[in-house]
Structure formats: C-alpha cells, structure tokens
Amino acid sequence: MTIIYKKWWKILAVLLVFYTLISGFLFKVPSKVILNESIRNVYFHVPVWFAMLALFGISVYYSIKYLRYGNETYDIVAVEAVNTGILFYIFGLITGMLWAKFTWGEAWSGDPKQNSAAIAFLIYCAYLVLRSSIDEEQKRAKISSIYNIFAFPIMIVLLFVLPRLTDSLHPGNGGNPAFGKYDMNNQMRIVFWPACIGWILIGVWIATIRYRIRNLENKTINKLNK
Amino acid sequence: MKKFLLITIYLITSVAVKAQTVEMADVLRSSGKIYVVVATIAIIFVGLTAYLFMLDKRLTKLERNK
Q1: What's the confidence (pLDDT) of residue A33?
Q2: Which residues of A touch B32 (CB under 8 A)?
Q3: Which of A136, A164, B36, B60 could bridge A38 with an S-S bond, Cβ 3.0-4.6 Å?
C-alpha cells in the first residue's frame, strides 16, 4: 500500500476534476426539454455516485481481506472507506434532490430511485452504528466486516436493480438505459469519464488521509496504554 | 351572445397564455437552468472543504498530543 503515499495520482485527480469544471460548463451538450442546461449536472452529480461506489467497493474488498488474514489495518481501511463513501453519498443525495426540484418538480417525490437510495443510506449508517456499539476490537472488526459484505450487494440491488424493475423518473430506470445509448453523445463522454475517474481518485485520496489519521490515533492510544 | 362568446374566447386564451408562461421568474430556472449546475458544484465544493477543515482539526489535535 505504498501507493497511498505517492503524489502523482493525487495530482492526476485534481487535474481531471479541474478539467471537467471548465469543460463541463463550456463544451456543447445536447438540447433537451425540461433538462435544459441542467444536463451538465451529469458531470457533477453522477461522478459523485461513482466515487461512492468505488469507496464502498474498496471497503468490501478490505473487509474480506480482514476476515481472511485478521490484520487490524484492513479493518481500518474498510471503515474509513465507508466513512468517506458516506460523505459522497450525502453529496449525491443532496445534489440529486436539487436537480429533481427543478426537473421533476419536487425535491423528494417518493421516486423508487430516491426511496431505495434513502434505504441504502440507512443500511450504511447502520454499519457505523453497529461498529460504535461494540467495544471489543476484534469482535467489532469481525462482525462489522460480515455486515459490510452483506450490505454491499443489498446496496447495489437497491440502487441499480430494483428501480429498474419499476417506473422511475430517474434516467436508467423503467427499462431505459440511463444516460447511455440515447442521452449521452461522445461530446459528453469526453467530460463525463474523466470526471468519474477524477472524483473516484479524490474520494480515495480523502479515504487514505482518514486512514492515516486513524492509524496515528491508534498509535498514540497504544502509547498511552503502555 | 356575441359578448358571451368574446368573454369565453378571452378566458380560454388567457388561460392558454398563462400555461405558456409557466417558467417562473426565479434565478435557478433562468438561463436554461444553468444555475442548478452552479448550485450543485457549490454544494459539493462547500461540503468537501468543510470536511477538509474537520480532518485538519483532527490532525492538529493529534500533533499537539505528541
């Protein structure tokens, strides 16, 4: 894990996001009714969810690793990835509500996508509550790792499978393929994908900083105990 | 009868005109809703920087304890 101390990918993250901040406003986008210019939100609202997904994915990976090798640092990585993922989750929910207000008419219209996003959010909040309710370290790490492994596929189903089976206002649901084949052209892709990579890297960066701080805290606690 | 017809025509057209001008005079719906995008970026940026300050505070605390 020496890569977390390297600088190049952090610079890459900043450059990619900075590029999308400029090009996201200036490049041409398809004209659509109701959406109007707010279609540019695809460059900012969606990548935030990509970052959340990447962080929760990393968290599950390290939870599995923890259960396999029993190394405490893997558990710390898992929890800090979730902590950062929750931050991006909140960004995604709030910006989604703002966008919904001006395109669907209401910030929260009880849309299947919104409702399942809220449920999945609570599932991840429960992960953090579960952790803080167990004092013994190994027990906490083990139980929360197992919970995390179950929470991830449930979150995926709630966010990306169930809303697709019913009618939803959100693109990508009710059978229509998101901002995929029909809504997104190549002009948009050259902004969208760099934005996704950039925001994922920024999310990972924040998670590594949290991880390093947590490591330091644990070391000082251990020193005090000795 | 003529008056009645005129009034109904007036009413219908006025309703139609009203329906066309649904676009309200608020900032976020002006200029093709571009300010929705601006607000989105503002939310993310303010949130991120607030978070950074929190992290910074946590780190400062640690450094003081050493």
Answers
A1: 80
A2: 36-38
A3: B36
- Asked whether the beta carbons of B32 and A39 are under 8 A apart, the reply is no
User: How confident is the model over A65-69, as a mean pLDDT?
Assistant: 96
pLDDT of residue A136: 93
Task: Note the ipTM here.
Answer: 0.81
Report CB contact under 8 Å: A99, B40: yes
Interhelix angle A45-69/A186-225, nearest 10 degrees: 40
CB atoms under 10 Å from CB of A207, counted, come to 25
CA distance A38 to chain B (A): 5
Chain A residue numbers touching B54 (CB-CB < 8 A): none
Q: Which helix (H) or strand (E) holds A93?
A: helix A72-103
* Vertex B29 angle, CA A38 and B37, to 5°: 30
Q: Choose from B22, B26, B36, B57 for mutation: most chain A CBs within 10 A.
A: B36
Q: Which two tokens stand for residue A112?
A: 């299947």
pLDDT of residue A169: 81
The alpha carbon of A117 is separated from its chain's Cα centroid by a whole number of angstroms, namely: 12
Rounded Cα distance between B35 and B38, Å, is 5
Mean pLDDT of A137-150: 95
Q: Could you give the 3-state DSSP secondary structure of residue A46?
A: helix
